[in-house]
Amino acid sequence: MSEKPLSREQRRKAIEQQKKTGKKQNKKPSGGGWIKRIFLTLLLVGVFGLLCGIGLFAFYASSAPELDEELLRDPISPTFIAADGETEIPYITSENRTYVEYKDIPKMMEDAILATEDNRFYDHSGIDVIRLGGAVIANITGGFGSQGASTITQQVIKNSFLSNDKTLKRKAQEAYLAFKLEKAYSKEEIFEMYFNKILMSGNIYGFGTASEYFYGKPLDELELHQAALLAGMPQSPNGYNPFKNPERAEKRRNVVLSLMEQHGKITTAEKEEAQAVSVTDSLVPESERVTAEVNGEYTAFMEMVENELESLEGDYSLDDGLTIYTTLDPAVQKTVNETMASDFFFDDKVESALTVVDTKTGGIRAIGAARDYSGDHRINYATSKDRQVGSTIKPLVAYGPAIEYLDWSTGETTVDEPYSYEDGKKIRNVDGDFLGSMTIREALYRSRNIPAVKTLKEVGTENAAEFTENLGLELENIYESTALSADKISTVEMAGAFAAFGNGGVFTEPHTITKIVFRDGTTEQVVKPESVPAMKDSTAYMVTDMLRDVVDTDLRGSTGKEAAIRGLDLAGKTGTSNYSAEKLDEYGLDSSSAPDIWFAGYTPEYSISVWSGYPTRKIGIDTASDERLISQRIFSTVMSDISSSESGEFEKPDSVVELEVEEGSSPLKLASAYTPYSLRSTELFVRGTEPNQVSQRYVKEDLDTPSGLRASVDGNTANLSWNYDDTDGVAFKVTVEVDGNNTTLDTTSNMSYSFNGLEEGKTYTFRVTAVSNNDASDPASVRVSVAAAPEEPEEEPAEEPEEPAEEPEEEPAEEPAEEPAEEPTEEPTEPVEPEQPEEEPVEPEEPAEEPVEPEEPAEEPVEPEQPAEDEGNGNSGNSNGNGNNNSNGGNGGEGNNEGGANPASVPTETPPAKTPPAGTPPAETPAAEGNNQP
């Protein structure tokens, strides 16, 4: 039977129903499905990572060394290598260790150690999982290696077999061997290994040795506060040494006591009672301390190596069998030791210290800690920071920053004058005097105090602080007075700071270690500090050039002459601290006493800083005697012995320009051809700041020389007159020279002047110079001789009668006015011709053979008492000191310019054929009668 056909409506409903069913089937899964997928993915990644970690751990563990009981129980001493990379340096002391068995370790001592290092030691199997989890979190937030989780077991492993580098490989091997060690030895045996193996200080190993060394008694007699102090020392053996650093040791002890209370080892009352005890009270008295066998040759240097090793970022320990490459030069250290033991110290109590640094690398080549650096209780004066450095600070805090930040030149003008601090307190120079205007170059080599304070004020304390910080100096506060001295600076830091000047402005922190090679012999780490620019190379060279003058033996006023070394390009600075008036009175010292004497100097090869003084400030060095030179002499002795012939010279960089300038010009200007040599100086400028204008102060071409200068004598009066074309704004300075003395008579706007007071037997040279503002012309000159009645005939040649006295007074005065205009055209290109009388005295016969050539009197060598430059009219004198020549070098007017002579006045013109009697003394030298420039 066939089915009944569906109606159209029924078919439509069936189709709609099918569509709804299809939509339900295509609907996406809910969100819970995706979460499951993510979880499963992470789980798979985690499992994969765990498997990889296990595999990596297994791989690293497979290469771990085997356990060696001898290495487990005995410490491994380090090896030290000198700067040459080959020479081994002996350690400062032999190994000092007393072995203590576990049964003899006091419970209190064990509790202190466990509370500090590994409180769950007896609960874990070599690795503290809880502590490890905290360390992992710390390493994620602070970077890998920021916090360790080493147990005592792991520390034994690390100190016995592995290197100190913080790597996954080392950590994996450490964990594997720790677990292995726990299986092979009991907890008590492992603790015993740690107890005797750990480095306590210097070359002292184990808590038992430390108990005897610091407290002079065995472990079972220690009190709680003493046991806590020893338990805290392994974290920084030298840093927490109670002999050297009692304050740090006390803080560390109190931390250990708090940990013991926290972990239930002691009560709160016991903690507080122990913390109240002074660290130093129970230490072995200094007089009773057992002196270790010290290798005195390198003691101070090796102590610095230990301290530097502890300060490095990383977990380094001297009992890890490290090979440490140092900067020590044994030959330089030998020189330093011999100098410190020499006999040139003026008494047995005065002390000294020095540091030798490589100028280019900053490596410390040698240390002079004291004159005798031996015994258990030693004071290293080279690293001490409790002394004032005096004027050694001036280039660091004042002049260096002025060049760096203000672009000052070495010729910048300053004034040494009465001056006070902002609070009104007067500043004084050491000599109590004021020298007036000078360049900063001169102020520095003379070590003047007031210019230094002024310079620092111009620089500003913020700039000064930045500059010194770049040089590794940590000055807490900088005031105006810091320009004269500062404290908190050691010879090490001072040598390093000055080295930057000699190294083109590049600073490298002074250091003793360059690299460390771990026990495996292949893993190494370079630890020397990086070199950084501390200043511009222009600043470094300009300061160096000024400091060269400090040790210039030919420069008047330089303060460091005693440190100079022939053949070495050397720069340096002296320094002397002083006492306050109150301290001088308290100590009963005189004003010449000083507590500290410094010298810091450098070459391209080495930088050396030297301090000298007494251990107590109650005794001062006498600066009024040669005692003040002690630091300079030590410097010179050491530097001259260690320097090589190839030390080299400081090279001027392209950033520096060297120019000859006129001192006193403001702003500084180039010296002109007429600037007096006494006012010229060669100075350095930062390129781009150099002057390009020539000083016009002494330029004389703009003013003509007065012409027609003549003199007539009336009794004891000389009447002068002269001519001048344009007198607008021009005055005339009249001077007279007699008996070698120059005197300015008047500055007048008139063209005449009368001089009263002529004396018999004397010769007067009058000069007239046109002046306007700062300009001056060449002087015109005329000479008047007043004869002495009885003696004069013996001085005159026999051939010369008294006829010249009968000549008309006007005739000699008129002749010179014509000749100057003619002579320049004959020899215009030879301005130095007037010096011929000095150059040709070996031909006295020539003038006698040529009496018919009066036009060449300048070559006449037979009249030294009447030089040509003093005779002549208006255009006399030039820039080279010959008063008779015009500015073009002519020699007109010679020998005929003494017109107006009366019977009391004898003209100086003499026929060239005449020769004076033998033995006639010269009346004046050309230099005395020549140029009268300002």
Features:
5-stranded mixed β-sheet; 16% strand; alpha+beta; 5-stranded antiparallel β-sheet; 27 helices; 934 residues
> Describe the biggest sheet?
5 strands, mixed
Mean pLDDT: 79
Gross geometry: elongated
Query: Which strands sit side by side, in order, in the main sheet?
Result: 2-1-6-14-15
Structural class: alpha+beta
According to DSSP, the number of beta strands is 32
Assembly state (oligomeric) = single chain
How far is it from the N-terminal to the C-terminal residue, by CA? 150 Å
Helix % is: 25-40%
Low-confidence stretches: 133-148, 792-934
Strand proportion? 15-25%
Radius of gyration, whole Å: 45 Å
Count, helices:
27
Summary, kept brief:
The protein is of the alpha+beta class and 934 residues long.
Notes on the structure:
The N and C termini lie far apart (150 Å). The model is unreliable at 133-148 and 792-934 (pLDDT under 50). This protein is an alpha+beta fold and 934 residues long. It contains 27 helices and 32 strands. Helix 2 crosses helix 7. A hairpin with a 6-residue loop joins strand 22 (656-662) and strand 23 (669-670). Strands 2-1-6-14-15 form a 5-stranded mixed beta sheet, covered by helices on one side. It has a 5-stranded antiparallel beta sheet with strand order 8-7-20-19-17, sandwiched between helices. Strands 27, 28, 30, 31 and 32 form a 5-stranded antiparallel beta sheet that branches. 32% of the residues lie in helices and 16% in strands.
